[in-house]
Amino acid sequence: MRFGFKFSNLCGSVYSQGNLVFTPDGGSLLSPVGNRVTAFDLENSKSLTLPTENAKNIDRIALSPDGNVLITVDEEGRALLINFRRGSVLNYFNFKAKVSAILFSPCGKYFAVSHGKLVQVWMTPSLKREYAPFVLHRTYGGHFDEVVSLDWSLDSDFFISGSRDLTAKIFTLDPAPGFPVNFAGHKDTVIAAFLPKEEDVAYTVARDGCLVAWQKKEDVEDGGGGNRVGMKRHRTSGGWKLRERHFFHQGKVQCATIHKESSLLVVGFTSGIFGLYELPSCNNIHTLSISSHKINSVSINKSGEWLAFGSKKLGQLLVWEWQSETYVLKQQGHSQGMSCIDYSPNGSHMVSGGEDGKVKIWQCSTGFCFVTFAEHTGAVQAVKFMSKGNAVLSASLDGSVRAFDLVRYRNFRTLTTPKPTQFLSLALDPSDEIVCAGTQDSFEIFVWSLKTGRLLEVLAGHEGPISCLSFNPIQPVLAS
């Protein structure tokens, strides 16, 4: 039997893990959500989840500079080549290793992928369907441990890699004498390494909160000029030196990114704090605590105005405009599993209950959560909209049934039992006056009056947990 249903959108989670990527115009943000990718339109306050899906949860994503090609890589290194404009899969590929970093070159002709201790540079596939669209350009070695970060120079001739072996290396796209250039001196993993717009400078950021600026030594051969031809000729012969070392003093570093046009460095820490710094002086412009858990990913848009942060533990996704100090987007899914959902009578909203004890109301047209109720102290097992759609009911393992007003956004009624019990199911009669809840441990059904909050009756007879309740919409009959 064929049905006319197709995937529309994904609600309940906004970020799971991996890196965040802004679109080239800077108006939308791509976020990995499980094995899918959700695009958040920040200018129009809407979200859209791509119909494509990986076999496992997505760990890394990369978008080409023209915004046409999207590559998503799961936890086991299997990748999808996606036409981002159309949302269609062009090809499947297996990198055969965990991918910790993937990044397109600014020219859009190549993309670099970390492959364990190696770095692979591939030719960017076209949007045409081909038998083998992935063509390997070259493999680069030299590290003694896993490569965790990559960054390209603005002309796409060089790229720098940071590794767990406490070093960073500059490679050339094509073979050149004296390469790779090795940067050693850190005492912890090099979380991020950058090649800014200045051709004679490189930056490395270590997990212990140390930022090192590396300076290319002057070379007599070209008089210290900044042209790329001379740079390739003398970059190694002139040597590099450690120009200065800075410390953030905010704890361990989890992620970092740079805005090359304005020389801004954004650093996310394991304490849930992020810092905005001006290079090369490393002056602190802005510091803010945005989460109680570590920040797993940070990104900055093309104009440098919006900063995006993702926290895996709480499923948080934040976009902060640092100049006006306001939130552009602030969303959080259920930090644990979602256990129940219900649609509003007109289908415009959806309520979800989670094992984290939270009840969230979602707007179906945008995919955004606009209110969260956190009064429950146990997992929410059942939720129900009232017939007019102006309130929702929830039953929890904490032994309470709560009613929430969607006009004033408050908990206006709490229904409990004489003895502590755990609720699994919930039902509301068509007149919105009688509330019934089934228990997990005492195998009973409790009946309340929603208007007065009084316990009217206790129905017994079941010999096991009551998993479902439902009222007849026409006759006053309850089925359990």
Write the layout of secondary structure elements.
Layout: E1 21-22, E2 28-33, E3 36-41, E4 46-49, E5 58-63, E6 69-74, E7 78-83, E8 88-94, E9 102-104, E10 110-115, E11 118-123, E12 135-140, E13 147-152, E14 158-163, E15 167-172, E16 181-184, E17 190-194, E18 201-206, E19 210-216, H1 228-238, E20 240-247, E21 253-259, E22 264-269, E23 273-278, E24 283-289, E25 297-300, E26 306-311, E27 316-321, E28 326-332, E29 338-343, E30 349-354, E31 359-363, E32 368-373, E33 380-385, E34 391-396, E35 401-405, E36 410-415, E37 423-428, E38 434-439, E39 445-449, E40 455-459, E41 470-471, E42 478-479
Antiparallel strand pairs: 1-2, 2-3, 3-4, 5-6, 6-7, 7-8, 9-10, 10-11, 11-12, 13-14, 14-15, 15-16, 17-18, 18-19, 19-20, 21-22, 22-23, 23-24, 25-26, 26-27, 27-28, 29-30, 30-31, 31-32, 33-34, 34-35, 35-36, 37-38, 38-39, 39-40, 41-42
Q: Identify the strand order in the major beta sheet.
A: 1-2-3-4
Q: What does the main sheet amount to? A: 4 strands, antiparallel
Instruction: Output the radius of gyration.
Output: 27 Å
Question: What best-fitting shape do the alpha-carbon axes yield?
Answer: elongated
- The secondary-structure class comes to mainly beta
The portion of residues assigned to helices is under 10%
Low-confidence sequence ranges: 220-237
By DSSP (H or I, 4+ residues per run), the number of helices equals 1
Q: Total strand count, please?
A: 42
Q: Distance between termini? A: 31 Å
Q: What is the average of the pLDDT values?
A: 91
Q: How much of the polypeptide forms β-strand, as a percent range?
A: over 45%
